[in-house]
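name: query_chain
kind: protein
chains: 1
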Amino acid sequence: MPLRLTIMPFETIYINGAIIVNGSSKADIVLKNQCRMLRGSEMISEEEARTPCKRIVYLLQQIHLKEDHSEELRELSSCILELLVHLPGSNKYINNIQNSLDEKKTHAALKHGKALATYEAQVS
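structure:
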């Protein structure tokens, strides 16, 4: 099923490793096949990933965007183990992330990661 995107002026999107910056006017594009895509507004930088949960979000976005993400998966596992010790209420979010990754639904895992970061901000 095609995905229609409206790209705002000067908006950045990432598609299969390419960084695409729109020009000065709005553009509509249609993605007709499966790809790894995120809008720049959905992303956080490595510098912004200062908390354990934001670090998990950063790793999940890298997993979503990269073709070979084995290194990020290893780091994610260690971050999750550490998080479960320090924030035991996070287990339902972690289960959702893991289930999505098991189903190869990396964008859904990223959404669950963002919910986890919101939870972290609420309890801190």
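note: The longest strand covers residues 3-7.
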